[in-house]
Amino acid sequence: MRKGLRSLAAVCLSAAMVAGMAPTVLAAPAERYLHIKVDDPSKGESVNVNVPLSMAEKILPTVNKGSLHNGHVTIGKADLNDVDVRAILDALRTAQDNEFVTVKEKDQEVRVAKSNGNIIVHVRDSGKESQKVDVTVPMKVVDALLSTAKENELDVAAALRALSDAGDALLVTVQDATQHVRIWVDSRNTQD
Amino acid sequence: MIVLGKVALGVAGVAAAGVGLICSEGMIEVKVVERQPEAHHVYVLAPAAVVPMAVHFIPSHEFGHASAELLPWMPTIRAALDQLREVDDVTLVDVTEPGQHVVVAKKGGSVVVDVNDRDETVHVSAPIRAISSTIEQVAAASHDSLN
């Protein structure tokens, strides 16, 4: 009788544990959103765009126009003055955390670095029209961009998938004399 | 008397089923309030299923180049509308300018566009299913005009 009760208790406990885990295992991953916010307080203008990343992932492969086809973008070397973007990204991907480029001029400073799994670009322009640009791209996104086999292509659709798997991230901020631009990814469907 | 009652019940049942069918795709809501130069109010609430049906009866040549130009973009439009149906309610675009505010959102299975400016207020709400069916009809008109 005791053995029977013990078995029953073990079965109940197992069932309870499975039931408790089920929502965690079965729950669909939360939707992630790409947010773009442009503010121009001097003109009283603002533009807010919220795009579900799953939507962008599905739409992008259907666009076949210009250099974009099946979610891949073809990069012509002629368009980039023979700069091999793919080779540069690949070199950055395999390099260790470091500051790679620092250019300091009278009114401008540019820094390119790799830090904590991100590629970081800082541009500071203190000239007549002062401007601050910060770009942070997770390395996973760079890996995804390079995941296509073709040399002259970048896989933008894969990059979007990687972006949706990555955590919340502030990707781009641009601040000039009048405008403020922010591009970021999170799981909230509003910008509040 | 009993026969009449049965007939009335049948007619009422068919009418209810018809209304149910027509309203099955939701309702299209258009609300326009003009403030200047004269105040006008326009409010239309129509079953969304009627629009694709109405488009079906428009001669294909009436669409001109629109349907042919739409055709290459159909995979993109289909993907966008399919995904839009799946995602949670979201404000897709919100633009504010001095004197003007435009919002495009997905709310409960519909695409909602709100425009507020000094002269008028416009509110349009259309079910995604109806938008999809209508666009499919317009694109199909391109095939008809080619044949």
Task: Please give a structural write-up.
Chain A is an alpha+beta fold. Chain A has two domains: about 1-30; about 30-185, no CATH class. Chain A is about 30% helix and about 35% strand. Chain A contains five helices and eleven strands. In chain A, the strands form two sheets. Chain A has an eight-stranded antiparallel sheet. In chain A, a hairpin with a 4-residue loop joins strand 1 (about 35-40) and strand 2 (about 45-50). In chain A, helix 2 packs antiparallel against helix 5 (about 155-165) and helix 4 (about 140-145) runs antiparallel to helix 5. The longest helix of chain A has 25 residues, at about 1-25. Chain A starts with a helix and ends in a 6-residue tail after the last strand. The model of chain A is unreliable at about 20-25 (pLDDT under 50). Chain B has about 150 residues and is of the alpha+beta class. Chain B has one domain (about 25-145). Helices cover about 45% and strands about 35% of the residues of chain B. Chain B has five helices and six strands. A six-stranded antiparallel sheet of chain B has the order 2-1-6-5-4-3. In chain B, strand 4 and strand 5 (about 110-115) form a beta hairpin. The longest helix of chain B has 21 residues, at about 1-20. Chain B is globular and about 70 Å long. Chains A and B meet through strand 2 and helix 2 of A and helix 4 and strand 3 of B. Strand 2 (about 45-50) of chain A pairs antiparallel with strand 3 of chain B, so a sheet runs across the interface.
